[in-house]
Amino acid sequence: MSEPILELRDVRTHFPIRQGFLFKRQVGTVKAVDGVTLSLARGEVLGLVGESGCGKSTLARTILQLLPTTGGSVLLSGRNLGECGAGELKQLRRDLQMVFQDPYASLNPRMTVFATLAEPLLTHGVCDRGEATRHVAELMERVGLAPRFMQKYPHEFSGGQRQRIAIARALALRPRIIIADEPVSALDVSIQAQILNLLAKLVRDMGLSLVFIAHDLSVVKHISDRVAVMYLGRIVEIGDARSVIDTPQHPYTRALVSAIPRPDPEVERTRQRIVLPGDPPSPINPPSGCTFHPRCPYAVDSCKAAFPELRAAAGREVACSRIGAF
To answer: For 234, how many CA atoms within 13 A lie in the half-sphere containing its CB?
Structure first.
């Protein structure tokens, strides 16, 4: 693997819970992200998967410093983003852009496509107003939209077209990294395929690095080089996408993979689904030791003592002390 362009070292993002009317006091902490360490290489696609509420979107916003880190560091080409001032962070964000889940919510309904795509170009001095039309037209063509639509508003487009506009906006400053937070979950299946193929083409043609957040492991397997599985704010398994999904080692990953539907009706009828008991614990008061142990069918008393660190196993890293026991 080439030199990492993005590194996360023990990143934590906690939110205080306060009570009181005049004198608010902290009564608890939501540990949304609780010690994530991973890296992203140049030109790599890293899939990030997990249940709703596991901290994926919070981690994405923390990487971009839309949310401040409680602890740890986010390094972009060796520069700690948490130590940057507003001016320096503005410059570094040219290399780090995001595509949000809901394209309609992430686009300003009062701005035309031209205004939306020209705004970052003008703000960062990429071009002047006289050249903006040409640059916007090039961006629209790159994502498969006709430039003649640049004076239309978001409500005049379909969901897939709006997501293409959001991708074009993320590409405007020619970033090196794009974080896509469930970019296809709000789209029809046929449109999902088009957006996935577009992202794969952009990664290939522009040499982008991509953090792809999703629930659907079959989608993640299709587009990703590596997959990181997240549970209650921590990474529990990370490795090559095909090996993690085809031969999962962590019990939680096994449960996620078992939920992937099979296109063959005969296989689907005989497939054994792993149904985990209960709901994910609250990040306000997580269980002691391995946070997955209350739902894990293989848990023993030692699992309650300490959270297992990621360690090498079967060509990937797994945070489980009972690897090989199931």
So the answer is: 22
